[in-house]
Amino acid sequence: MKGALLYEGKAKQVYEAKDATGKLILSYKNDATAFNGEKKSVFPGKGRLNNEIAAHIFSMLQDQGVKTHFIERLNETEQLVWQTEIIPLEVVVRNVAAGSITKRLGIEEKTVLEPPIVELFYKDDALGDPLINDEHALLVASITQAELQEIKTKALAINIHLQHIFQAIRIQLVDFKLEFGRLACGSIVLADEVSPDTCRLWDVATFEKLDKDVFRQGTGDLLTVYEEILNRLEEQK
Ligand code: C5P
């Protein structure tokens, strides 16, 4: 049962889980935002799609031994997770150039990045989530050098698992953003969500974009492509 609303973000609300110490309920909203909230829209049904997709992916990652905050999907739009203190870093892993790296470094879209590139952004809306280096991360995120290394190593290991998960459904994992959280015991686990809101997912045969870029770029219907991802994941079961 849902307790008090603790936090509301752009895509999710976070509630206390009543009678369940140390657990939270994530409630996925139908809102889509891009460009740090400058572009906004509501897509009825998006919350269900992201909740179901993220639940699938977190379950598969857990089956592969990745420690995450995910406990269970509760209903269409909500999931139960362990409470963590979110580390204010957006950890982006890139296998193929797209999005901000193409503009920042003048690299052509679709250029394969081998080995994959890990980038850190400071999770701060007011500052526009700036790209930061390791020393900045140690300064702003209250983590040790060893923990930063652990986060990067985990992000690259998760990349391998996610590549396999998406390859199996004929999708190329171009890039994605992860967030990590600290459990009460101190250990660091994967938190937040992994969904078409936070990944670039291209059909391997057609290069069709099956992620939030269709909304960012106004090139397709968000609900149709998210549904396609969910259907392909469900076919796998
Ligand atoms: O915009 P950029 O190319 O840096 O994004 C890299 C990846 O991180 C993309 O998959 C994007 O969806 C994701 N991302 C995100 N949340 C942000 C910024 C980027 O999920 N605030």
UniProtKB/TrEMBL annotation:
<dbReference type="InterPro" id="IPR001636">
    <property type="entry name" value="SAICAR_synth"/>
</dbReference>
<keyword id="KW-0658">Purine biosynthesis</keyword>
<keyword id="KW-0547">Nucleotide-binding</keyword>
<dbReference type="InterPro" id="IPR050089">
    <property type="entry name" value="SAICAR_synthetase"/>
</dbReference>
<dbReference type="GO" id="GO:0004639">
    <property type="term" value="F:phosphoribosylaminoimidazolesuccinocarboxamide synthase activity"/>
</dbReference>
<comment type="pathway">
    <text>Purine metabolism; IMP biosynthesis via de novo pathway; 5-amino-1-(5-phospho-D-ribosyl)imidazole-4-carboxamide from 5-amino-1-(5-phospho-D-ribosyl)imidazole-4-carboxylate: step 1/2.</text>
</comment>
<dbReference type="GO" id="GO:0006189">
    <property type="term" value="P:'de novo' IMP biosynthetic process"/>
</dbReference>
<dbReference type="Pfam" id="PF01259">
    <property type="entry name" value="SAICAR_synt"/>
</dbReference>
<dbReference type="InterPro" id="IPR028923">
    <property type="entry name" value="SAICAR_synt/ADE2_N"/>
</dbReference>
<feature type="domain" description="SAICAR synthetase/ADE2 N-terminal">
    <location>
        <begin position="5"/>
        <end position="232"/>
    </location>
</feature>
<keyword id="KW-0436">Ligase</keyword>
<dbReference type="GO" id="GO:0005524">
    <property type="term" value="F:ATP binding"/>
</dbReference>
<protein>
    <recommendedName>
        <fullName>Phosphoribosylaminoimidazole-succinocarboxamide synthase</fullName>
        <ecNumber>6.3.2.6</ecNumber>
    </recommendedName>
</protein>
<dbReference type="InterPro" id="IPR018236">
    <property type="entry name" value="SAICAR_synthetase_CS"/>
</dbReference>
<comment type="similarity">
    <text>Belongs to the SAICAR synthetase family.</text>
</comment>
<dbReference type="GO" id="GO:0009236">
    <property type="term" value="P:cobalamin biosynthetic process"/>
</dbReference>
<keyword id="KW-0067">ATP-binding</keyword>
<dbReference type="InterPro" id="IPR033934">
    <property type="entry name" value="SAICAR_synt_PurC"/>
</dbReference>
